[in-house]
Design a protein that fits this description.
alpha+beta; 5-stranded antiparallel sheet; 6 helices; 29% strand
Length: 290
């Protein structure tokens, strides 16, 4: 039995990582994925800051963050995202991430991480806005939120709803550049933040999105003894798009795997974990931001 550490992105593409094993399993589009949730115990907290949860507290199966309340508090106490580290000496970058028509967000990431944060969020396209100290990057992020109404969060449900109906790469890049142009023209940028050119990077090929069809369902949760089995069609952020034996395309948010023990499943196994229906077509239509 292996304990899942979820999905990680790197130069070699998406990989499933395993806690305490020092290894990861590469994922290949068109390949089969199959596993069984260990039929022993329950989903347990993964701890905080690389330290195990002292009581191995149980966590809900439907939660995307496999931490108990105390470990979640400790984790956020040392988090840039929670604004609890104001004196981080690293250089940070401000970015615009595009997930679909009208779905653009602003965010920051440590420069040393490169584009990893954008891959982890499932950004189909992105562009850098600026680079500099942490607090300058934070002020710029807030400037875009207040002056342009660009959010710093977009729900995963919204990202999934449009992933199979994206416009052409030129249109994606044009929307990022349009927001970029409006952003760099704003007065009030911190003097210590260096503006960056509006070059757009596209991840559609990396995610395997060409020809992707609507997902009709999503895994609701994993359960002890439950099976997930399908062919990997695409991956974006934490999501795996799997074609199940019945031909339906279903999304598995790999954050649901974290905290569970995982074992191999026999060939030809069928998915038995709970799934929920997803809106498709006109049901999933999104309104633009601007």
């Amino acid at each position: 039995m292996w304990r899942s550490g979820g999905l990680r992105w790197g130069a070699e593409g998406p990989r499933l990582v395993w806690e305490g094993r020092g290894r990861a399993s590469a994922l290949v589009y068109g390949g089969d994925i199959g596993f069984r949730v260990a039929d022993v115990g329950e989903r347990t907290c993964v701890g905080a800051r690389r330290n195990a949860c002292p009581v191995r507290a149980p966590v809900p199966g439907r939660g995307t963050q496999a931490r108990c309340a105390e470990c979640a508090r400790l984790d956020r106490a040392h988090s840039v995202a929670a604004d609890t580290i104001a004196d981080d000496p690293q250089t940070y970058r401000v970015y615009l991430a595009w997930f679909g028509p009208g779905l653009v967000k602003v965010g920051i990431t440590a420069e040393a991480r490169g584009s990893a944060r954008l891959l982890e969020q499932g950004a189909v396209a992105f562009g850098w806005l600026g680079r500099g100290p942490l607090m300058a990057a934070r002020r710029t992020e807030e400037l875009l939120r207040s002056a342009l109404g660009v959010p710093d969060r977009i729900p995963y449900a919204s990202k999934r709803a449009v992933r199979s109906r994206l416009p052409a790469p030129e249109q994606r890049a044009a929307e990022v550049r349009e927001v970029h142009g409006r952003a760099v023209a704003l007065p009030g940028w911190p003097g210590s933040l260096e503006r960056m050119a509006g070059e757009v990077v596209d991840h559609a090929q990396v995610f395997g999105l060409a020809g992707l069809t609507d997902a009709t369902a999503a895994v609701s949760e994993l359960v002890a003894g439950g099976v997930v089995a399908g062919r990997l069609v695409a991956a974006a952020g934490p999501d795996l798009h799997l074609a199940f034996a019945d031909g339906k395309l279903t999304v598995l948010d790999t954050r649901l795997m974290v905290g569970w023990g995982i074992t191999a499943t026999e060939p030809g196994a069928e998915t038995t974990v709970p799934v929920r229906r997803l809106a498709t077509g006109t049901e999933a239509r999104q309104e633009g931001l601007f």
